[in-house]
């Protein structure tokens, strides 16, 4: 969703940006509700709060940069953008797998952790298989 800021007016964009903090709030209370699953919930908390941060510090909600962004959030950021690009939406056509790869590579060191991009490129065939398997119909 963060990739399509131009689809929202400024007020809608500000509201949309609050969902990362809302997810963190929900997950922080869930840790007490589900004892024994703390590790999974902590990881989900990091992902919810950090997957819209950008490697160069221009993301939100905290404008974290580089390795200050939790690794699970850096991985999810890339996976989320890949899914948004290759999935058809009411406001856009789906991109090809190849175009999505090129777009993600072009954002290396700006939007995405360079090492996560490198791992994605090595495993990109698996992303294609998974995206086709779970394609929205």
UniProtKB/TrEMBL annotation:
CDD domains: HDc. One of its GO terms (molecular function) is phosphoric diester hydrolase activity. Coiled coil: none annotated. Signal peptide: none annotated. Residues 1-136 form the HD-GYP domain. PANTHER family: CYCLIC DI-GMP PHOSPHODIESTERASE TM_0186-RELATED, CYCLIC DI-GMP PHOSPHODIESTERASE VC_1348-RELATED. This is HD domain-containing protein. It comes from Polynucleobacter kasalickyi. The lineage of its organism: Bacteria, Pseudomonadati, Pseudomonadota, Betaproteobacteria, Burkholderiales.
